[in-house]
Amino acid sequence: MIHNVDYVKGLMRKRFEGTISPMESALLRAAHRMYDEGEWLRMTAQALEEMDHATEGGLPKGTPLDLPAIRREVDRKRRGAARSKAWARVAVAAMLLAVLGWGIKKYWEDHLGPLRVYGDCTPAVDGTIPGTGFEGTVAYGDAPPVAIGTAVWGHIGTVGNLSIDRDTSGVVVISKGREAAPSGAGMLPVIRVSTGKGEQLGVRLPDGTRVRLNEGAVLSYSPGGGESAAPAVGVSGVAFVQVPRQENSGQVGIGTGNSWIYTGKADFVVATAEERTGITLLDGGLRAVSRREKKERSLQVPGDRVSIENGRALDGTPTDIVVTMHSDRVADALQWARAIKEYRDVPLDDFIRENAGRFHIRFKDLNCLPKGKHISAALCYRASVDDFLAVIEKHGVLVYEENGQYTLCDPKTGKRWSRSTAIAHVADGDGCTQCGRFH
Questions:
Q1: What is the pTM of this model?
Q2: What's the rounded Cα separation, in Å, for the pair 382 and 375?
Q3: Among 72, 138, 169, 275, whose Cα sits 20 to 30 Å from the Cα of 125?
Q4: Same domain, 349 and 321
Q5: Is the dihedral of CA 419, 420, 421, 427 positive or negative?
Q6: Is 44 helix (H, G, I), strand (E, B) or coil?
Q7: Do residue 164 and residue 30 come from a single domain?
Q8: Residue 375 in contact with residue 348, Cβ under 8 Å?
Q9: Regarding predicted confidence, which is higher, 252 or 247?
Q10: CATH number, domain at 402?
Q11: Alpha carbon distance 348, 396 (integer Å)
């Protein structure tokens, strides 16, 4: 009943006429509580106008309300309500613009804009790690292994008529000397160039082939000699290989754990273990042949990829599983060689697992890592442990060191905490101005 506007206005008219009953008066009071002040005044004015029009000579004498005054009050309320709605719309629009601006800024920072670089380094012209920062180990024959550090330059050793040197660009160069290998010298020892954790090293072979080894990779070069007709090259781990055009349309063969790669000219990245080889072509062309079943695949377009894996058929017979594919993201294959590695909107736990070994530190657990936490940052190849930890803490996660181990759990409580509690520990939300870490 009182939800009906016409019914409520009828009660108002009865009250003005003095004919309203106690029950109707109670209903009118209840209706007054249901409507806002502006609406109630508007209904009151309408009720009085209807009485004015329906009654000869105007409103009854003694009517307790002034109709013109009520009309002025209604107009004032309406103008006020209009202004309030306008300001409310402006406030909502400003809030939406602020949220939209934050979203655009966040998307720009995570996907398009420049990232903050942690660590101090100067990349090479092509953006890769400069050769002066290369490190690794060279071993051959019975000679003790030679550690190739940033301070090792010049002549390293001699194998038959081959000289092993490190040039001014930081690359290990294996070149033929002026003198031929002595006759009857027999098989020359294999030259092994390897890298450890966090190391990379570039090698140039006598035919001009360049090999850039990622961490944990090995290049083996057998010079031949004796009954061996030609040198042999083998790679394990991850490496970037550049084979220049060979004389007389010849081809270079490079062995992996389960396949051979043949090319007359190509740039490619190979990632190989004992039972699996993955190859991504960057330029030129090549053939990949599996060792066991001699399955062959050709890569001719940059971005072509092949995977060769040792497996077994349904009847248990050993077989080679060969799969080819293509990707337009060619540059991703050499991300590991970049002086500055970018992480855009990457899960924080993946970032920690990928880099903890590089810095030779161990996290006790990742159970206290807030769920869904992502990071966007760039890490230099010369970054320190402090730089690595600064990336984590810059994204609102505190790192604790306890008994030589790192943990994301507060040692005092061992409980999970969120970004809000992390900020409560820190006065400066941006961390230290020098290292970026929270102290």
A1: 0.62
A2: 20
A3: 138
A4: no
A5: positive
A6: helix
A7: no
A8: yes
A9: 252
A10: 3.55.50
A11: 11
